[in-house]
Amino acid sequence: MTPTRAKLSVMMFLQYFVYGAWYVTAGTYLTETLKFSGSRVGLAYGSMGIAAMISPFFVGMVADRFFSSERVMAALLIIGAGLLYYVSTITTFVSFYPLLIIYALTFMPTLALANSISFDHIEDPARDFPKIRVLGTIGWIVAGVLVGALGIESTAIPMKIAAGASLLYGLFALTLPHTPPHAAGQPLRARDVLGLDALSLFKDKSFTVFVIGSFLLVIPLQFYYTFTNAFLNESGMTAAATKMTLGQASELGFMLLMPWFLLRVGIKRIMLLGMIAWAIRYAFFAFGNVGPNLWMLYAGILIHGMCYDFFFVSGQIYVDQQATLKIRAAAQGLIAFVTLGIGNVIGSWASGLVVQAYQTVGPNGAITHDWRSIWMVPAIGSVVVFVIFAFWFKPSTDAKPPADEVALPMAA
């Protein structure tokens, strides 16, 4: 392994260690310790979606034109470290929420910057990037195992760990290979920054159905990211954060299976499998328990790779097939804006409202939930999106890419 490749691998490990250290267990901390209502927990998780809508414009206007990527990343991570540590000391929602949004605005651009730096310094992205990106999944797993093993899921300590890791990562970023701004000196056009050229793809009705379906599926998806850790802890599962990392491990296994499925069943059917997997997962959670049906909870976690990879990664491949080289980056940015941005915000908010509707506060202030009713909502929602896709999504091409074109997911 070359020194550059080693640095890029460490970069990816730290990138997702910072993310995974606090994001998975924040729902438990906000619910059990800070006693935030379900709707407020949903709003807090939606902060990352708000940042996801803004960060592409920041990267396009600043990192691509004025400063080297590694220095922009270092500054964002170091500032973010201080912000996240301060957020971990706040106990009132009126202060916690806006500060978390500000932190998210510093972190979300680093996801794109990490990818950009990687692509700039590898010879063959299709061959080399997955081998680097896999360290990100490992970083997420290590963070979850650490937090679960320490038994700190309901405390602010995971945020403090993430803040410390962010500071370390920021200093390390200064040692990354120099990545100058590629668009320096070029005229700044709103059309380029906003990726408006990708809107031409909506002339294809199936592409429109794909975008609408992706947006709708992200809404039930957010139930998983926002409330699974709180659900497992309330159900009595020990070291829930550690056990949830089985989902990231399954991503790697399902990613290895994707080329086989793509060659034999095509994009549409594999995406439908991913959608129905979400419904099955939520049904497992609805009827599972820490008792005779414990296997259902584990099954719901282990199916994560199929849920994520089979829909979102295959969706990236579909977009790549539909877009010309000129608008390919804009098209991927459009999908990210719709799903990671708008869909994330609405899904987090909606999941919070549902959880609050089935929430009970005991005389001692303890919060409990009717989790079976809660999980059936996203299960039914996933089935509805499945039906929409099954009947109205008719891609004009169902080409199967070779295995070396299938990259690991950009985020878990």
Question: What is the average of the pLDDT values?
Answer: 85
Distance between the termini: 26 Å
Q: Looking at CATH, which topology of the largest domain would you report?
A: Growth Hormone, Chain: A
Global structural class: mainly alpha
Number of helices: 14
* CATH class group of the largest domain: Mainly Alpha
- Rg over CA atoms: 20 Å
CATH-scheme architecture of the largest domain = Up-down Bundle
SSE arrangement, N to C: HHHHHHHHHHHHHEEH
Output the CATH homologous superfamily of the largest domain: MFS general substrate transporter like domains
Percent range of helical residues = over 70%
Main β-sheet description: 2 strands, antiparallel
**Count of the domains:** 2
Describe the structure.
The protein contains 14 helices and 2 strands, in the order αααααααααααααββα. The chain is mainly alpha-helical and 412 residues long. It folds into 2 domains: 1-181, Growth Hormone, Chain: A (Up-down Bundle); 197-405, Growth Hormone, Chain: A (Up-down Bundle), CATH 1.20.1250.20. Strands 1-2 form a two-stranded antiparallel sheet. The protein has helices at 3-23, 26-33, 38-63, 69-87, 93-120, 125-150, 157-173, 190-194, 205-235, 240-287, 294-302, 304-322, 328-357, 371-392, and strands at residues 359-361, 367-369. Helix 6 packs across helix 10. Mean pLDDT is 85; it is low at 398-411.
Features:
single chain; 412 residues; Growth Hormone, Chain: A; two-stranded antiparallel sheet; 75% helix; disordered C terminus
